[in-house]
Each structure stands twice: as C-alpha cells, then as structure tokens.
Here is the input.
Amino acid sequence: MSDALTGQLLALLSAVAFACSNVFISKGASGGGDRGVMFSVLVTMVFSGLLWLTLEGGRLGTGDPDVWWTGIGWFVLAGILAMVLGRTFLFASIRKLGVTRASAVKRLNPFFSVLLAFVLLGEPITGLDGLGIIGIALAFGLLIRRSFQRTSGAVETQASPPTLGSYGWGVGSALSYALAYITRKYGLLLVGAPAFGTMVSAVSGFTFFVVASVFVAQYRANFRNMFRNLNIWLVLAAITVSLGQILLFAALFYEKVSTVVMIASLEIFIASFLAVVVFRTEVRPDLETYIAATIATAGVVAIAWN
Here is the structure.
C-alpha cells in the first residue's frame, strides 16, 4: 500500500471515529463543567503511549539535538491547541449546537487549514482551492443566517435556531484544530515519529490541565471530579475522540494536509446518520442545515481535488 493510500485510509477511519465521538459526547456530556474533556486527553495520552511503544519501539526520533527539541516544541504547541482548546470548544459546541450543526461548523477546519498552510507552510492556493474556500464560507453563512434573523427579531419560529454565541464555540474549535494541524506538520518534518509526537502532544495537553488546576478553581474542580462525572457515553466519547485524533495525526505523516482534511470532512454525514437514525439523539435537522453541510463538503472536495 502506497503512503498516499495509507494516509487516506487513516483519514477515513478518523472520520468514522470522530463521528461516533460526536454522538457519544451529545449523549453523555450534558450539563456544565468539564464533562469528559480532561479524561479524553488522558485516554489519548495512554493510547498514543502504547502505540509509541509497540509501533515505534519507544524510539524518540533522530537528528540534530537542536532540531529535535524544536520539533518537540511544535508537538507541545499542537497539544495545547488540539487537546486543550480544540477539545474544550468541541465538547461545548456539540452540547450547544447538536451533532449535525456542530459537525457542519467543523468544516471550517479546511477553510482555516488551507489559508494557514498557504501562509505558514507555503502550500499554494489554486483556483479550486479558492472555490472551495468560498463554498465553505457560504455554507457557514447559511448556517448562521437564521441566528442573525432571530437576533434582529426578523423571524419567530417554533424551533428556534442556536444563538450566534453558540456557533463561536465551533469556530474556536475549528481554528484551534487547524492551527494544530500546521504545528503538528512542522513537528513531523523535524521528528518523523507520529505516535511519539501524538503522545508528546497529549502529555502537554494533560500537563496544562494539571498546572491550571493549581491556579484556577474551575480546573481544580474538573480535575478532582474527572472520574466522578463519567458515564459510559463519556468513556466511549473519550476512546473514539482519542482514536480519531491519533488516526488523523498519523494520516498527516503520510498525506498532505488538504487531502487529509477533505476525507475527514465526511464525518458530518456519518455523524448525522448516527445521531438521527441509529442513536436518535436529535431530530432530523432542517433542509437548510443539510444544504449548508453539502456545500461545505463540496468546498472541501474542491480544495483536495488537486
């Protein structure tokens, strides 16, 4: 199997894992507080550590010490962005928007990823990239249109759309993950060990929570109640979101950022099917939401078509 095909398969498995995690978060993460974020990072740390030992033989990577430490620094930054900010915002987004809308907002990942890859990695933006970016932006505008109308009092519906502030959690998650993709890629270019890099990112994310708990009362309460607040759905969410993260980061080692993000965008349709048909955690979204999701996915396909 070629490296490109390996990366694409890993990205597809990541989409399935993330779709499952979205539904499990929705079922288990009701209420306030941490509700599984910290535990999910702990699970990622354990899983990636086992993969590092089994698949990479506990190797720390090779190269010049200065280059190696620079790579570690990028992995640490990726951990803060993905494990702390990305996951915290993601859990909040799913609670506030529901599975389908939150998954649709996550399609902003490639929007940010392609722009950041152009600015920071020097990856060119072609005509199709531009069309894809426009499509994703239009889809997001369609998603939040009714929220703008509700804010201005222009519409009154029985099933009110989410507030604009609720969408902010999804946007923050997408931007954090997009930045994590770029910093992760920087690290892999310097230290070619995906499992080791994922473990470093997870350890740095969990360390952030531990240090923050010393100074911030909310984090201290979250840390103290990390296991007390768990239920079976949050455990499953932690396992699947960790698998999705590991598979996605591994895919980036074999395939370019835009292609990986494009395949991962299939998550929205898998997640919607699971939420509406299989687990029935939410009612079928309106047609406008599905149109926005389709436009966003078409935009992602256009980005990766090259």
